[in-house]
C-alpha cells in the first residue's frame, strides 16, 4: 500500500451532502492529481514512479482504482482511470492493453477487476464510464462473457444481478445471462433469490428464457430448487403470468367447434427434467452406475 492507496481509501462517496465530506473529497482529489499530473500542463507525469503508484497493490491486491470503486468516489475514479489509460508503455503488448485497463485487468485477490468491483458495489455510472472506450458497448460482449469472471466464475452480469444494477449491461452490451457460476447459478437464479422482480421480468423477456429456466441446485438439501419453484415461493404473481403467457397455448376460440387449450408441463412437473438441468447431476449418476457395475463384477 502506498500514499495513493491511503488517499483514495480515506475519500468518501461523491454523493455525500455533508459540506465537510465534500471539502475532504476535493482535497483528496487534489492530492491525487498532484501525485500524478504535471502542472500546469496537467499531463500525466512521464515517470516510472507514477506507473508504480497506479499499479501498486495492497494486501488484498487492490490497486488504487479498485479502492476508488469501493469508495464510490466518481471524481477520483475518473482521474485514476484516465491516468491508467494514458500511461506510456515501451512494450507494444502493454500499449494495446491500455484501452481495456480496468476491464480485464488488474485483478485483486478475489479475481475481480475494477469493472467487476463496479458491478459488485452497485456503481452503474462507473460501469458506463469504464466501458465507454468503444463507440458501441456491444463490442464488449466477448470480453464480458468469456474473459471476465472472478474466482467463483461470476461474470460482471452475475455480480450486477446480485446488486440490482444489471439493466445497463442487459440493454447495451448483449452480455449472456445464461452463463453459470461455479455453483451452477445463472442470472435468473440470482435475481429471483435476491428478490428483484423487475430484473426477473426483464430476463424472462429474453429469447433464451427457457435456457434460463432450465436450472437446478440442491443448496444443502435433498430437494432441488429451480427458478419455477423459487418464483412460486417468492414471486407468485410472476409465476402465474409465466404459466398464463408462456406455458399455455389456446387453439381456436371458446364456442368454436375446435377449441383446445394445451399446457407445457416442462417447468411445472419438473421432477423428471432436473437431471438434465443440474450441471453435476449426470456426473453423480455416472459415479453411482460405475459403483454398481464395479460391485457386480
From TrEMBL:
Keywords: ANK repeat, Glycoprotein, Ion channel, Ion transport, Repeat, Sensory transduction, Transport
GO molecular function list: transmembrane transporter activity
Domain of life: Eukaryota
SMART domains per record: ANK (SM00248)
ANK repeats: 60-92
GO biological process, one term: monoatomic ion transmembrane transport
Pfam family, one: Ank_2
GO cellular component: transmembrane transporter complex
SUPFAM superfamilies: Ankyrin repeat (SSF48403)
Xref: PROSITE patterns: ANK_REP_REGION, ANK_REPEAT
Protein name: Transient receptor potential cation channel subfamily A member 1
Organism (species): Didymodactylos carnosus
Lineage of producing organism: Eukaryota, Metazoa, Spiralia, Gnathifera, Rotifera
Amino acid at each position: 500500500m502506498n500514499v495513493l492507496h491511503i488517499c483514495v481509501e480515506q475519500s468518501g462517496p461523491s454523493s455525500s451532502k455533508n459540506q465537510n465530506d465534500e471539502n475532504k473529497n476535493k482535497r483528496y482529489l487534489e492530492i491525487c492529481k498532484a501525485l500524478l499530473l504535471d502542472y500546469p500542463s496537467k499531463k500525466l507525469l512521464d515517470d516510472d514512479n507514477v506507473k508504480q503508484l497506479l499499479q501498486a497493490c495492497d494486501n488484498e491486491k487492490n490497486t488504487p482504482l479498485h479502492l476508488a470503486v469501493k469508495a464510490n468516489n466518481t471524481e477520483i475514479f475518473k482521474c485514476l482511470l484516465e491516468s491508467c489509460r494514458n500511461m506510456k508503455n515501451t512494450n507494444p503488448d502493454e500499449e494495446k492493453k491500455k484501452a481495456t485497463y480496468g476491464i480485464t485487468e488488474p485483478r485483486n485477490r478475489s479475481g475481480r477487476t475494477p469493472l467487476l468491483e463496479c458491478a459488485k458495489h452497485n456503481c452503474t455510472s462507473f460501469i458506463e464510464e469504464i466501458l465507454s472506450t468503444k463507440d458501441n458497448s456491444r463490442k464488449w460482449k466477448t470480453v464480458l462473457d468469456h474473459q471476465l469472471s472472478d474466482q467463483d466464475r461470476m461474470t460482471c452480469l452475475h455480480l450486477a444481478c446480485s446488486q440490482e444494477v444489471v439493466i445497463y449491461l442487459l440493454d447495451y452490451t448483449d452480455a449472456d445471462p445464461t452463463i453459470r457460476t461455479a455453483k451452477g447459478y445463472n442470472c435468473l437464479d440470482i435475481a429471483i433469490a435476491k428478490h428483484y422482480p423487475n430484473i426477473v421480468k426483464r430476463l424472462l423477456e429474453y429469447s433464451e428464457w427457457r435456457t434460463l429456466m432450465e436450472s437446478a441446485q440442491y443448496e444443502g438439501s435433498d430437494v432441488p430448487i429451480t427458478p419455477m419453484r423459487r418464483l412460486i415461493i417468492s414471486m407468485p404473481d410472476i409465476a402465474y403470468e409465466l404459466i398464463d403467457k408462456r406455458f399455455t397455448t389456446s387453439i381456436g376460440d371458446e364456442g368454436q367447434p375446435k377449441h383446445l387449450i394445451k399446457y407445457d408441463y416442462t417447468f411445472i412437473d419438473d421432477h423428471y427434467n432436473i437431471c438434465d438441468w443440474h450441471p453435476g447431476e449426470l456426473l453423480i449418476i455416472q459415479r453411482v452406475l460405475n459403483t454398481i457395475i464395479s460391485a457386480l463384477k
